[in-house]
Each structure stands twice: as structure tokens, then as C-alpha cells.
Design brief:
Helix content is about 35%, strand content about 25%. By secondary structure, the chain is of the alpha/beta class. The chain folds into 2 domains: about 260 residues, Aminopeptidase, CATH 3.40.630.10; about 120 residues, Alpha-Beta Plaits. The protein binds zinc ion (2 copies).
Length: about 375
């Protein structure tokens, strides 16, 4: 039996960035093999798939993401990251450990259910490309098409609690790199130039009008300019400026409106400045809205309620963050059920101090009761579908 606490601390101490989860993949594959799973590594890069065939019945896919973030850990934990500038600041080490625990329990109790268990350790969730990479590497052709996709995410809720939502749950995310073209020159003679810095500044301000003035207040949408880059020195007006923009939306209509408005405004600001060239747009890293299938969610939540009791469930979760787990369900054309579980033991924390959020250098779940809850939730959800 794997010591789950030890496995968690080991993963936490050895975080690996997206697409570089080599050690993590080995550790997880080694944990699955003795449980009787058929284990394949290097699926869609550093993905790991374990298959447990246990007679006739549905195919249930349980997924955990495994990548870390370029964050310097500041939790002060004795098992903090040993790698400078890399940390499990989103809790994916917790997800992976919970999935090993669930795989172990389901394997031990296989006499009680029948069907096929597909355990998927997915790389590169933070870049929202890992799920697509695995699907494109023949995940379903090689290991079987699931009937249901189940996954969870830890967050700054009280440990022991489970939050769920039905329908659109996490936002679609699209990123675009914009290049604005001006005409460079001497800082003392702006009249001989077209200043791309001023052009970029106007665009950044004007882009904030999209959500405020063009999207219905009843919709959820975000436009963030997270990066702005231009110039090398105070007395040189540069040739170009670059903007890194990210948009979040919850349906295809709003997603289309946001994309079109970003391009329209940036083009118009370039024209207003007399730019010598049209701006360029490089859209990348798109992921669709994550929908927790309403029917499948209500069936799963019924099982959660029976297991945990109503008092440990929080309905109505929706967050503007994004997740690419929906890509599995979309590609397989089957429902996905996704929920959040709490990672903070508030009784052990300084009262009145807000718990750090995922991606904060101070974020790390309290191991218990987070881990046991995450394992239980996966097992209960899987058993809802395994006959
Ligand atoms: Zn994250
Ligand atoms: Zn995450």
C-alpha cells in the first residue's frame, strides 16, 4: 500500500513545470503498477494512463493533473519545494495523490463493482494543452472510450467540504499576442515618429470598455492585459509594442464578441495613431468552457450527499479560472462531472486571516482532511457509475 501522505510530500517537494513532468510521471506510474493496472507512460508527452479491466460495464475515466507552476514557494512548510522558482502552487500534487488513493481503493474493492477504470494523469493543465495532447496521441483509441469523465480541483475552501456546480462551471480562456507597429525615432522628435507606446496605452485603456459597455451585465466575462512590452531606452521611440491579452467567457456567443471586440479596438487604435501597418494577432492557448453535465452532476451529487451529508456540500460553484479537463469529455462526446474540494483547515490557521488562493506562493492545502476527502470523493463518484 502506498503511504499517501508520503507520496504527497514527495510530489510537493519535487514539482515539475508543464510538459516537463518526467519524474512525477515515473513516481505515479510506479504507484499504479502494483495495484494491477496496465500502465502506459508518455501518452501525449508526459501523460500516464492506467487501465483496470474488471468485467462488463461502463468505462469510467478519472483524471488528475500533475504539473506545477513557475512560483517560488513561500509556505514555510517543512516539505516545501526543493526546486527554486517551481512550486505546486495549484495543488495538482494533491489531485495526483488523491487519484492514486482512489485507484488503490477501487482496485482493492473490485469484487464489489464491474466495468473498466481508466486512470489518467494529465500533464500541462496550467497551459491548458495537456488534455488535447493526450487525446491527439490516441488516448481513446488506445485505451478505450469512456462513458463518463470525472475530475476534481482543490481550492481555498474549508477542508472536508465539496463545492459543485451544474452546467458551465469554469470559463473558456483565450490568449492573444498583439503586435502594434509604429515608426521609431529620437525621443526628442516625436513628430517624426508614430509612437507605438502611446498606441498600446490607448488600446489597454479602451479594451477595458469591452466588458463594461459591450457585454450584458448578466453575463460573466473578463478581459485582462497581463503583459505590455515596448522599447529599450527613454530617449528612443521604439518601432513596435506588444500586448499579451487574456479573455474569459462562459459561452460561445460571448467568446466570439470578446475576440471580435479586442481585434476591432486594437485595429482602430492603430488607425487612430496613423500606424504604418495593421496590427498582428496571434491567438493561442484556447480552451473551451468546462461544463459539468447537469444530469450526470445531479446523480453524482446524490451519491456525495449520501456519503458526506448535506452539511459538507456547497452548491452553485462557478469560477472565472479555466480547466482543460472538458476537452476529454468533448472529444469522447460524453458527460464530464467536475467539483472542487476544500484544502484549508481553518481551525489550524490564524483567525481572521484569508486563506491564500491557488497560484499564490503561500498556497498549499493542509494534508488532512483534504487528502481523505479527495480520495473519498473520487471513489464515491466512480462507484456511482461502475455497476
Ligand atoms: Zn492552476
Ligand atoms: Zn489547477
Amino acid at each position: 500500500m502506498t503511504d499517501l501522505h508520503e507520496l504527497y510530500r514527495d510530489l510537493h517537494q519535487h514539482p515539475e513545470l508543464s510538459l516537463q513532468e518526467f519524474r512525477t510521471a515515473e513516481v505515479l506510474a510506479d504507484a499504479l503498477r502494483p495495484l494491477g493496472f496496465d500502465v502506459t507512460t508518455n501518452v501525449g508527452g508526459t501523460g500516464v494512463v492506467g487501465v483496470l479491466r474488471n468485467g462488463d460495464g461502463p468505462v469510467v475515466l478519472l483524471r488528475a493533473d500533475i504539473d506545477a507552476l513557475p512560483v517560488e514557494e513561500a509556505t514555510g512548510l517543512p516539505y516545501s519545494s526543493t526546486r527554486p522558482g517551481v512550486a505546486h502552487a495549484c495543488g495538482h500534487d494533491m489531485h495526483a495523490t488523491c487519484l492514486v488513493g482512489a485507484a488503490e481503493r477501487l482496485a482493492q474493492t473490485r469484487a464489489e463493482w464491474s466495468g473498466t477504470l481508466l486512470v489518467v494523469f494529465q500533464p500541462a493543465e496550467e497551459l491548458v494543452c495537456g488534455a488535447r495532447n493526450m487525446v491527439e496521441d490516441g488516448l481513446f483509441e488506445r485505451f478505450g472510450r469512456p462513458d463518463i469523465v470525472l475530475a476534481q480541483h482543490v481550492g481555498p475552501l474549508p477542508a472536508g467540504m465539496i463545492a459543485y456546480g451544474s452546467g458551465p462551471l469554469m470559463a473558456a480562456s483565450d490568449s492573444v499576442t498583439v503586435t502594434l507597429f509604429g515608426r521609431g525615432g529620437h525621443g526628442s522628435a516625436p513628430e517624426t515618429t508614430v509612437d507605438p507606446v502611446l498606441m498600446a496605452a490607448h488600446a489597454v485603456v479602451r479594451l477595458q470598455g469591452i466588458v463594461a459597455r459591450e457585454i450584458s451585465p448578466s453575463e460573466r466575462a473578463v478581459v485582462t492585459v497581463g503583459r505590455i512590452q515596448a522599447g529599450t531606452q527613454e530617449n528612443v521611440i521604439p518601432e513596435t509594442a506588444e500586448l499579451g491579452i487574456n479573455i474569459r467567457s462562459f459561452n460561445e456567443h460571448v467568446r466570439g464578441l470578446l475576440r471580435a471586440a479586442v481585434e476591432r479596438i486594437v485595429r482602430a487604435e492603430a488607425a487612430a495613431s496613423g500606424a504604418p501597418r495593421e496590427p498582428e494577432f496571434d491567438w493561442h492557448g484556447g480552451t473551451p468552457v468546462l461544463v459539468s453535465d447537469p444530469d450526470a452532476t445531479s446523480r453524482t451529487v446524490e451519491a456525495f450527499t449520501a456519503q458526506f451529508g448535506q452539511e459538507r456540500l456547497i452548491p452553485g460553484a462557478v469560477v472565472n479560472a479555466s480547466e482543460d479537463v472538458g476537452v476529454f469529455g468533448m472529444a469522447a462526446e460524453v458527460p464530464t462531472v467536475f467539483w472542487f474540494f476544500g484544502g484549508i483547515d481553518f481551525s489550524a490557521r490564524e483567525p481572521g486571516r484569508a486563506a491564500p488562493m491557488n497560484h499564490s506562493p503561500e498556497f498549499a492545502p493542509d494534508i488532512e482532511p483534504t487528502l481523505s476527502t479527495g480520495v473519498d470523493a473520487l471513489v464515491v463518484a466512480a462507484r456511482t457509475w461502475l455497476s
